[in-house]
Design a protein that fits this description.
Elements: H1 3-24, H2 32-37, E1 55-56, E2 60-61, H3 87-90, H4 92-110, H5 117-129, H6 134-151, H7 156-171, E3 189-194, H8 201-214, E4 219-224, H9 229-242, E5 246-247, H10 255-268, E6 273-278, H11 286-299, E7 307-313, H12 318-331, E8 335-339, H13 349-357, E9 361-365, E10 373-375, H14 378-386
Parallel strand pairs: 3-6, 3-7, 4-5, 4-6, 7-8, 8-9
Antiparallel strand pairs: 1-2, 9-10
Helix pairs in contact: 4-5, 4-14, 5-6, 6-7, 7-14, 8-9, 10-11, 11-12, 12-13
Main location: membrane
Function: Involved in targeting and insertion of nascent membrane proteins into the cytoplasmic membrane. Acts as a receptor for the complex formed by the signal recognition particle (SRP) and the ribosome-nascent chain (RNC).
Keywords: Cell membrane, Cytoplasm, GTP-binding, Hydrolase, Membrane, Nucleotide-binding, Receptor, Transmembrane, Transmembrane helix
Length: 389
Amino acid sequence: MDYTIFGVAVFIVALLVFGGVFLIRPRKPESRDESAAAPPSGAPAATAVAEPEEREPGGETAAGTATAVAEPPAAPEIEVPPPSAGRLVRLRARLARSQNVFGQSLLGLLSSDRLDDEAWEEIEDTLITADVGVTSAAQIVAGLRTRVKVLGTRTPEEVRRLLREELLTQIDPALDRTVATGPFPGRPAVVMVVGVNGTGKTTTTGKLARVLVGDGRSVVLGAADTFRAAAADQLETWGSRVGAPVVRRDEGADPASVAFDAVARGVEEKTDTVIVDTAGRLHTKTGLMDELGKVKRVVEKKSQVDEVLLVLDATTGQNGLRQARVFAEAVNVSGIVLTKLDGTAKGGIIIQVQRELGVPVKLVGLGEGPDDLAPFDAETFVDAILGDS
């Protein structure tokens, strides 16, 4: 073999192989600007890529064009409720509209020309119809008869003054009607709200929170009505309006543990007042009443319970009084909240429930508005039902 020819052939083959590799190697990508400058054949000329415009504060461009900026969801606005002082005075006209029939009827009877036995019986019946109670009605009539006989005259001014004094004697302005709202050394005040279904218990709890926040108190709410998820939702709505946190659990949770946790949070955060909303229950159901007692006992392992407020519907009359007796036996009620007092002429229930239980009416509900719960004041109440002097 001619090695010279063979060597030349190998050289030519090698040259072809390396040359082909070099010729088919991918070209280095051109710069972005160059590729943009040379669009494919038949394609419309590309527009220059605009750099992001410089933005001015507030989400606008330097040219002043507004741009869409996603805003975070706004936090609910915290309301500042009015203070408790003067609330009943402000609501006096509303109270007078519902109680005026009762008051004016009594004044009319006492101002009549003849006050014989029949007239006095009618006065007593009017008092009983207004849920004053048989015993209290008899005492009021006896007092009025004696004083009218002694005075001998019955001008409208004298009659009004006499009736006012007798009603105040029965309502007893000297009773302590303050709600213990704390704080106390090392712990918050603890308020339990109890009552039967339908009396406005959860609403009263929320309104009471507004009263306290309006007075500058800090509040924690305990949603211990675990039978209804809607009750806890409702309480959270009330709390969010005034910045009061709500302790709640899933529906069906142990109400005593929820109440305990609410008080524990109040202690930890040095809150002024913890208000515990309990489930509505029929006063005839022994098991449910026993459970209410358990809630109170469990809470007292963490802190003293300073108030047990029983919510009563003013329109229920004698039935409301029966309810009050059972609740008082179960949890030692310390005060009454009368709701719907604006819609009934039976405000005499105030006299009767206080007489039967020895427990003062501390708060009254006079409407559907969020700030229609007011501290009860005996003199303002009597003046409202008798009209201006």
